[in-house]
Amino acid sequence: MKYLKEYRQRESIEAISAEIARITTRPWTIMEVCGGQTHAIVKYGLQAFLPKQVELVHGPGCPVCVTSLEILDQAMMIAARADVIFCSFGDMLRVPGSRQTLLAVRAAGGDVRTVYSPLQAVGLAEQHPDKEVVFFAIGFETTAPANAMAAFQAQHKQLQNFSLLVSQFLVPPAIASISASADSRIQAYLAAGHVCAITGYEQYLPLAEQYGVPIVVTGFEPLDILEGVMMCVKQLELGHHVVENQYVRAVVRDGNRKAQEILERVFEISPQTWRGVGQIENSGLRLRTEYMHLNAGQKFGLPSKRPVDSSGCISGDIMRGQKKPAQCPHFGTRCRPQHPLGAPMVSTEGPCAAYYRYSKPVTSNEY
Ligand code: SF4
User: Fold this and answer.
1) How far is the CA of 348 from the centre of ligand 1 (A)?
2) Which of 99, 145, 305, 340 is deepest in the core (most CB within 10 A)?
């Protein structure tokens, strides 16, 4: 398949690996922000293609992992109502809230449905005017335009029985928060290519400047990731800290203006609580006043409680690059994909799930 095979060729990977080894003179710690990149790194064993001085650590870019307990508990309260069809992406169904999961709510009789797009949920609202249809609108800048389009369509169609439970996150404030923390050891970032395909990368320029960190917009295939690492290492070795774009086949500086327009029309920037991390200023999106009647939290009059996470999950340390999954005392023992204690063991973008699933990386001549 075009744009896959050529980015998985072992000869190309070994060549770039040799070049990284040649230019590396000191230890460097680089964070890949996106959970999709984490999975590729672990699946293909890419750390083994790097010199010992170059360490990759995993970032907060798994939307399922960072959705707060408070929102999850609200989701379960709504989903348990007899008059509701609750729609979600499949990953969210097994994520533990403070007491149960959406899957358990479904088993107890709740109408919880897996959908593949928010517009599918809008369609369900049209088909079931006697029910309240709620879509769990989670994600980063990648999902926000489609979620915004669902709100726009619902308003356009004057649907009275559709709403969104919104848990949207923004990447740049998270990078700023990690970089600003006194115990951060991150010296460079691989920014998520698909996020930048929407937003472009202008907003990363002041971050690189303020925190003195190279930021390289990077794709998701093995060769993309190693090339992104090489671009970071080159800058680090030279003492540079600018934004570069490795993922030129998908990302332009200004991003996707159409997607940005619908996003900005429906959402506005807000504070956001990241599970395991806490609140980060300006790191979330909420519905604008004109769309607030589509806010499920408000529609159902849900209490705003801050539940305490007593699971023992250390996802916050992992999402901030301070620990690796295997350093969690519960990894592979109390916490496994069949019995997850925390979201990072559930999600297809969760770092713990990646370490568990790919304990033996893929090995073949052509990945
Ligand atoms: S192994 Fe489980 S408990 Fe530990 S950090 Fe990962 S998800 Fe949380």
Assistant:
1) 14
2) 340
Residues of the chain with CATH 3.40.50.11740: 65-170+286-299
Measured torsion, CA atoms of residues 76, 81, 82, 84, in degrees rounded to the nearest 10: -80
What's this model's pTM, rounded to 2 decimal places? 0.93
Fold of 9-64+171-245: Rossmann fold (3.40.50)
Which CATH architecture group holds 65-170+286-299? Answer: 3-Layer(aba) Sandwich (3.40)
How far does residue 277's CA lie from ligand 1's centre (Å)? 14
The beta strands (E) that lie in the chain are given as 28-34, 54-61, 84-88, 111-114, 132-139, 162-169, 188-192, 215-218, 243-245, 267-274, 278-287
Exposed, middle or buried by CB within 10 Å (0-12, 13-18, 19+), for 91?
A: buried
Largest CA distance in the chain: 66
Per residue in 255-298, pLDDT tens? 999 999 999 999 999 999 999 889 999 999 999 999 999 999 99
Ligand 1 pocket by C-beta < 6 Å: which residues?
Answer: 313-315, 318, 325, 328, 330-331, 335, 340-342, 344-345, 352
